[in-house]
Amino acid sequence: MFLGRYQHSIDDKGRLIIPARFRELLSNGAFITQGFDGNLMVLTTESFNAISQKVRTMSITDPRARLFKRFLFSSGEQVDVDRAGRILIPQFLRQSAGLDGEVVIVGVGEHFEIWSSEQWQEQARQIEEVKEQADLFTEFEIPAG
Q1: N or C end of the chain: which has fewer CB within 10 A?
Q2: Is residue 95 part of a domain?
Q3: What long-range pairs does 11-17 form, CB within 8 A, spacing at least 24?
């Protein structure tokens, strides 16, 4: 499971060091794609395959399904962790998420996200607001321990 928050830098070749704890989970490879909030998502091969299976069952006659397929697959790239613990983020993905220099890597359970430092600050602000309004999550019915 991907947990935690880390700050790293993307080098001028587009390589990003992945936290050591995350590298173990990517031993079978990974996929990177656009996220839904101006970020990037990195999924294990297993997670990406599970999503792909589900997407392939969607009807091609549904315009929303076609749009989602284009969104997911046109921005998806298979990536490998190199010996130095880095992945290469394609330029078009770096541009789509505004990644240049400092980034924040955020574990979100089954995958992790890569955010520009500026956009992460906005997310962190929203998280702080939500912590003050915990009732927003009551519909999720999360059991207490």
Answers
A1: C
A2: yes
A3: 13/88, 14/88, 14/89, 14/90, 14/91, 14/94, 15/82, 15/86, 15/87, 15/88, 15/89, 16/86, 16/87, 16/89, 16/103, 16/105, 16/114, 17/84, 17/85, 17/86
Average pLDDT score over residue span 17-43: 95
CATH number, domain at 16?
A: 3.40.1550.20
Please compute the mean of the pLDDT values over residues 14-29 and round it to a whole number: 95
Return the amino acid letter for 109: G
Indicate the residue type of 64. R
Separation between Cα atoms, residue 99 and residue 117, nearest integer Å: 8
Query: Is 140 part of any domain?
Result: no
Q: What is the pTM of this model?
A: 0.88
Tell me the pLDDT band of 79, cut-offs 50, 70 and 90: very high
pLDDT mean over 48-54: 94
